[in-house]
Amino acid sequence: MIKKEKVCVFIDGANFYHLVIKKLNIQEINFNFNDFIKFLAGDRKVINRGKRFYVGTVREKVGDTRSREAMAKQTRFLTSLSLTNWEIKTSKLRKREEKIIIDERVTDYKKILKKGLKCIVFERTREKGIDVKIATDLIVGSVDNKYDTAIIISSDTDLIPALDWVRYRKLKRVEYVGFSIINQRYKDEKTQPSQGMITHSDIQRVLTITDLNPFILD
User: Fold this and answer.
1) Which listed CATH number (3.40.50.1010, 3.40.50.2000, 3.20.20.120, 3.30.9.10) goes with 6-93+127-215?
2) pTM, 2 dp
3) Which of 148, 172, 175, 188 sits between 20 and 30 A of 102, alpha carbons compared?
4) Are the C-beta atoms of residues 140 and 87 closer than 8 Å to each other?
5) Tens digit of each residue's pLDDT (9 = 90 or more) over 23-52
6) Which of 72, 123, 65, 58 is nearest to 97 (CA)?
């Protein structure tokens, strides 16, 4: 009897949101992740705990209605995944203050300076440790011989050292899933696959909106 190829799917949630969900102008809860995984796996076997989703968790700010609604929406979504045997790996979202100095690097900086504006201070939210968690699971899974092929849904090139390690040290295949999607609201914004991830993978798949439409729920 021929053994089926074993696959493990690793989804960088924030990456997928910006590359796909936002471009399709839908909510995460309205995307059928389970059927999507079946589509990617084909006739291959998704291993036990082989549907993995990595995401930074939204935290509620006291008195902030928007943050409370965002946290509730994310909780509903992650719960729906958990109920269908997804392995959820989370990390806290960190916020930090960043500053842009108005100088010659800024378009029309002289006009802006004349208005008395010398800098712009804003708050940026960043995930901490998601790439490390994906890389760790990739390596541990390869060492334990859990999978034959790792399906990577992320364009984060910080993963490349881990991808190379499982490919060359453990002889596992890496399948990179990228996207080519035009933003449905802003047509000049387009998702494109990562050349770095293409170079450091064995199999490359670039999906378009036509490929993804069957997984959009009404």
Assistant:
1) 3.40.50.1010
2) 0.82
3) 188
4) no
5) 888 999 999 999 999 999 999 999 999 999
6) 123
